[in-house]
Specification:
alpha+beta, PH-domain like, four-stranded antiparallel beta sheet, three-stranded antiparallel beta sheet, elongated
Length: 145
């Protein structure tokens, strides 16, 4: 059984960014309410920082998933929404691996298309056991799309 989870360094970096983002929001809000200097700049920056923080928080919470591969099944579990999706290997319509060369190495992402016309995405920078997942897909799902 192969278990692919989010990497802790990815979650840690996003959490630190969110803490800094919301801390700056509250500092801007406090400064906006107490001091009249640069009022219009603060009035624009405060909601902008809040919106950026909320968008990143939504992306972070929505993207957390634990994917298990084994026994001719793929099980994706989203802990925030408590939703579990089970996909039989025979129901997989196709999969595709994209490789983008970057300065720091290759960014690889695999997209798995299954019967509900939904796509499950895993990448080597954000998920553990990426190479084992690709090896499992090459072994069990013989075709790519």
């Amino acid at each position: 059984m192969i278990v692919s989870k989010p990497k802790t360094q990815t979650l840690t970096a996003l959490t630190i960014f969110l803490v800094l983002c919301f801390a700056s929001f509250f500092l801007l809000l406090n400064s906006l309410l107490k001091e009249p200097a640069y009022f219009y700049v603060k009035l624009i920056l405060t909601p902008l920082v809040l919106v950026i923080g909320l968008l990143v928080l939504g992306k972070l919470l929505g993207a957390i998933k634990v994917v298990k591969f084994g026994d001719n099944k793929i099980v994706a579990f989203y802990p925030i929404s408590r939703m579990r999706t089970t996909i039989n290997v025979s129901d997989v319509l196709g999969w595709h691996e994209e490789v983008v060369k970057t300065k720091n190495g290759d960014f690889r992402e695999v997209k798995i298309l299954y019967t509900k016309k939904k796509i499950l995405k895993l990448s080597n920078r954000e998920n553990t056991e990426y190479d084992a997942v690709v090896k499992y897909l090459k072994k069990k799902v013989k075709f790519k799309k």
